[in-house]
Amino acid sequence: MEKDDLEALTMCKEEPPRSVFYHLKTAYLITRSDIKTTIYPATIFAFSSALSGSLLTTNSAPSILSLLLRLPNVLLWTWSNLWVFNLANQRLPNSVLEDSINKPWRVIPSGRVTPTQARHLLLVSIPIVCLSSFYLGGREASAALMILTWVYNDLGAGDENFFVRHINNALGFVSFGAGASQVACGYPDHTLNQDAYWWLGVIATVITFTIQFQDMEDQEGDRLRNRKTLPIVCGDDLTRWGNAVVILLFSLLVPAFWRMGSVGYFLPVVLGSVIACRTLLLKTLASDKQTFRLWCLWLTALYCLPVIKHQNASL
Q1: Are 40 and 296 in contact (CB under 8 A)?
Q2: How much is the pTM?
């Protein structure tokens, strides 16, 4: 019997059975960090894509009511796939070490779940999530996320080379967006069209060159586990200047991709300018966390450009 199993058995003997609310809180804590970075943006991306009509989907006349009725399915698909990734990521020894510094409230460093229990949950969850995607839609995206999760965690793609890490993250983001969008479109009656995959490619490029905003706040834990992120390899100051340049560049290039008017440029440029100033002038841990939240908001603003384009074309 493994050490974690013995510890879990001892805990079960000493403590009363846990309530349903305790387990629900545990499930929430496992995915808590990525609600703002994955679930919210992927859901917004899905609804923006679905509401863009023939611009990105095979449904030329989407119904807002139908989309709202499909919201629970979109959230379920996104959360369940995120659940698998988080379980796979947080159970690893290096992740536990990092989380003990960066996120000590997570379920393994805080003692709510052992690594062995997380592995058992993962073994049960993978087939359930894969099978559910055949009903909800997004099965190709779900399969891609399983592969990317394995590459990122078990093969260490997130540790040894920052550019490989960025590409893996970008592919993960667009897989979440693509799968959630297919569910929102009303699979199997409607799905994404060919132009949507060009748009996903644009978003993948944006994320590849800006995802390092996520790493600015985690430098202490990343150094502890010898993870080669951009700010650690290139230095904090150089990375901040690079961040400022790329955020302003893509704030202009992405609206230009959609041939937007001034309205389409306004929010990305304003947010991008605020983020560029913050990353250069505000360098505390708390500031970097807030800057990353603004990056998530900026990315969400880019996600909304297709539906803005569609609405302007309909007027």
Answers
A1: yes
A2: 0.88
